[in-house]
Design goal:
It is found in: Cytoplasm. 35% of the residues lie in helices and 19% in strands. It has helices spanning 17-29, 43-50, 66-72, 90-98, 111-125, 161-171, 180-188, 198-209; strands at 9-13, 33-37, 54-58, 81-85, 103-106, 136-138, 141-143, 150-152, 155-156, 177-178, 220-223, 227-230.
Length: 237
């Protein structure tokens, strides 16, 4: 199956030669352009020349491991990062997501699932800005949907594209409790299975960046058993 448009550019960071070859062959059969990097400590150099749309990143790598790379990559790469690892515990997945990965798949990777995850991440990355033309302002917080500029207490707040879309969803329905199922459907186009922690991790990141209280959040509240609530009155101080 080929893609009539320009193929997505994938950088696969994987030191297992056999697995890398299998993934490359499958992704190419689905119209993607793939280059392979086998060491973690050479990824940043490769980014300068290749400029991928997405990075598939193994955790166990020579040189620099994948989790350490997750912390460094946002300074050099604005696209999505998909972690791949044989470490499949919830703790490992949560750590990877907290460090900046956009998704996480457990090895052995089902190739059809991998393609679906890649397409989903790229589709969300390439979505046009929100249709709303107005900025949202709550006390000392302002949110611009066109430039994705966030200001709090007259200081710019740096958010990833996925963090911004979650904040915009919550803030545009301020004062309302949004269920996890609703959020998953709108942002990820999947059903919430009761176990996935992607949105919880993004909420945690937003709270840290927006000076919310981590132990007892008052700006982005958790309503137990229901979902999350953006408190419009909590940004005045």
């Amino acid at each position: 199956m080929t893609n009539p448009q320009s193929p997505h550019r994938v950088l696969l960071v994987e030191d297992d030669v056999r697995l890398a070859n299998l993934i490359v062959d499958y992704l190419k059969s689905h119209g993607m352009h793939v280059e392979v990097e086998r060491r973690g400590d050479t990824v940043l150099t490769r980014l300068i020349n290749y400029k991928p749309d997405i990075i598939l990143l193994d955790i166990m790598l020579p040189g620099i491991d994948g989790l350490s790379l997750c912390e460094k990559l946002p300074d050099y790469f604005a696209g999505p990062i998909l972690l791949m690892s044989a470490l499949g515990s919830s703790e490992d997945q949560i750590k990877g997501l907290e460090l900046g990965a956009d998704d996480y798949v457990v090895k052995p990777v089902d190739p059809a699932l991998l393609v679906a995850r890649i397409n989903n991440l790229l589709r969300r990355q390439n979505q046009p800005p929100q249709a709303e033309s107005h900025c949202l302002t709550f006390g000392k917080l302002s949110i611009d949907p066109h430039t994705h500029a966030i200001r709090l207490d007259n200081k710019e707040v740096d958010l990833t594209s996925h963090e911004f879309e979650l904040l915009w969803l919550l803030a545009s329905q301020a004062g309302q409790v949004l269920s996890r199922q609703y959020i998953y459907q709108l942002l990820l186009n999947i059903d919430f299975d009761g176990k996935d922690r992607k949105i919880d991790v993004r909420i945690s990141r937003l709270r840290k960046k927006l000076n919310d209280n981590i132990e007892t959040p008052f700006r982005i509240k958790t309503v137990w058993g229901q979902g999350y609530l953006f408190a419009p009155e909590a940004w005045n101080n």
